[in-house]
UniProtKB/TrEMBL annotation:
InterPro entries: HTH-like_dom (IPR025948), Integrase_cat-core (IPR001584), RNaseH-like_sf (IPR012337), RNaseH_sf (IPR036397), Transpos_IS3 (IPR048020), Transposase_IS3/IS150/IS904 (IPR050900). Residues 127-220 form the Integrase catalytic domain. One of its GO terms (biological process) is DNA integration. Pfam families: HTH_21, rve. GO terms for molecular function: nucleic acid binding. It comes from Leucobacter chromiisoli. Involved in the transposition of the insertion sequence. This is IS3 family transposase.
């Protein structure tokens, strides 16, 4: 109430604000109560808040603005402040800062329902006697400030080397996984004869454009 009056007193005046809001808001501060509060010495809690609020803002900024109540509480204790978790939450609200919440789960592949799926040529045995015998492909994602970046990659099981990769803002087969396949094929001079290509049964990999390209290159 005091903060609200302070912000608007130059425009409307203390008496007018207290009279109008006192009639509309139960137990709103009277003009006499406002003046008494302004002349009353600051309480210990108020003085402590005035010290901690800028400290919380500083620590929050130094930690990339991602700390929530739990981490901020632990950090303040490490900094030597005797403070409870509930008090930390209250002061973070006063400071106008909050943590980054967990994002919703992201699905990088969706099963290609209603279509015949290829057999498993690997049988969970991820070993290879030489390079270009077994390649495994998958998609992951990276959270950025502007959204999700999806990453498709192909790894040679023998060397554990990523032989093809692609980054895009979309999961479309012709944009993301196909570009990773083309990179891997380019590194193998365009001939994938004898290569077993293993991936999840996601619609990205089961799409016609992707599966036909695998066969065109000679892989199984």
């Amino acid at each position: 109430m005091i903060t609200f009056i302070d912000e608007h007193r130059d425009r409307f005046g203390v008496e007018f604000i207290c009279r109008v809001l006192g009639a509309a808001v139960r137990r709103f501060l009277t003009s006499r109560g406002y003046r008494a509060a302004k002349t009353r010495p600051a309480s210990v809690r108020q003085l402590r808040d005035e010290l901690l609020v800028p400290e919380i803002q500083r620590l929050h900024a130094e930690n990339y603005g991602v700390y929530g109540v739990r981490k901020m509480h632990a950090l303040l204790q490490r900094e030597g402040w005797e403070i409870g978790r509930d008090q930390t939450a209250r002061l973070m609200r006063l400071a106008g800062v909050q943590g980054i919440t967990r994002r919703a789960k992201v699905y990088t592949t969706r099963s290609g329902r209603g279509q015949e799926l290829p057999g498993d040529l690997v049988n969970r045995v991820f070993t290879a006697p030489a390079p270009r015998c077994l390649w495994v492909a998958d998609i992951t994602y990276v959270a950025t400030w502007s959204g999700f970046a999806y990453v498709a990659f192909i790894t040679d099981v023998f060397s554990r080397k990523i032989v093809g990769w692609s980054v895009a803002a979309t999961l479309k087969a012709e944009v993301l996984p196909l570009q990773a396949l083309e990179m891997a094929a380019w590194g193998a001079d365009g001939d994938l004869a004898g290569v077993r290509h293993h991936s999840v049964h996601g619609s990205n990999y089961m799409s016609i454009v992707y599966s036909e390209r695998v066969r065109e290159l000679g892989a199984k």
